[in-house]
Design a protein that fits this description.
1% strand, 10 helices, mainly alpha, two-stranded antiparallel sheet
Length: 272
């Protein structure tokens, strides 16, 4: 069954904007912004999926790992809303492509957003506000909030509408050209590359063990990195992933990581 019925209105997209302001309110170290993503898209998902089982599947879909610059989250949520609307209209839509698109966008947008907002705008307006504060100007903190949050709110608001509208246009264009499946496969591959680079960047496992003794001793870490860079980090990530798939609780795994890391560091097996 195929339907081109437009179910979402500007009011619905505005709901995503307002809800996205709390995207970091429930940040966690397992899936980071996932609960914020669920909440931001919650009202839209309820409208698109009146059936409880489909709504549950959609909420579960957006419970996957998600993390990017908060100011650019609405843009991704707008695209996600467009794809969810397409999924609600078409029974043969590839649901896995929704998370693939999210994963492929969060890394590049985080690089842009962090550079613009945290690396440029915040120090710039902070410097202006501090120079005024040093002269005793009481307006300084208000000026800081205005100079930082006006661009913040504009990017969020127009971002979610642009994401939704561009997402709908792109989906229609891909369908007409017959390249929808190829685009989604490409996005899935890019998403996996982003996740892989995050492992190399965020997971650090180093060993202090050596092969041999004295001046001829060879550091095991250099041998492993010679075979494949960040091999230990990838191996530990794979082990944790396997444990989670086996049903072990994340909090329990975190405690085991903490305990093993402390003792391994004491005996020189691991090093900073």
């Amino acid at each position: 069954m195929t339907s081109n019925e437009k179910k979402l209105t500007n009011k619905d997209i505005n709901h995503i904007f307002w809800r996205s302001l709390s995207v970091n309110a429930s940040f966690n170290y397992e899936r980071q912004m996932s609960q914020g993503a669920q909440y931001s898209l919650g009202s839209v998902l309820k409208k698109l999926y009146p059936e409880k089982n489909r709504l549950a599947q959609a909420l579960k879909r957006h419970a996957e790992f998600f993390n990017t610059t908060p100011m650019l989250c609405p843009f991704i949520f707008g695209i996600s809303a467009a794809m969810e609307e397409e999924n609600a209209n078409k029974s043969d839509f590839d649901e896995s492509s929704i998370n693939s698109i999210k994963a492929s966008l969060m890394g590049p947008l985080a690089g842009i957003g962090d550079s613009v907002f945290w690396g440029t705008l915040r120090p710039l307006v902070g410097g202006i506000a501090c120079s005024l504060a040093l002269t005793g100007n009481l307006f300084a903190p208000i000026l800081f909030l205005l100079l930082f949050n006006v661009p913040n709110m504009l990017v969020r608001y127009y971002g979610v509408h642009w994401g939704y509208n561009s997402g709908m246009k792109a989906l229609d264009k891909f369908e007409k050209l017959g390249i929808t499946e190829k685009i989604f496969q490409g996005a899935s591959t890019l998403g996996l590359l982003v996740i892989g680079s995050m492992i190399a960047e965020m997971v650090t496992v180093k060993t202090g063990l050596t092969i041999g003794s004295g001046k001829s001793a060879i550091k095991l870490m250099s041998v492993l990195n010679g075979i494949m860079p960040d091999m230990l980090s990838l191996g530990v990530t794979g082990l944790i992933y396997w444990a989670i798939k086996k049903g072990h609780k994340v909090n329990t795994l975190l405690l085991w990581i903490l305990v093993i890391s402390i003792f391994a560091a004491l005996f020189g097996i691991l090093k900073a």
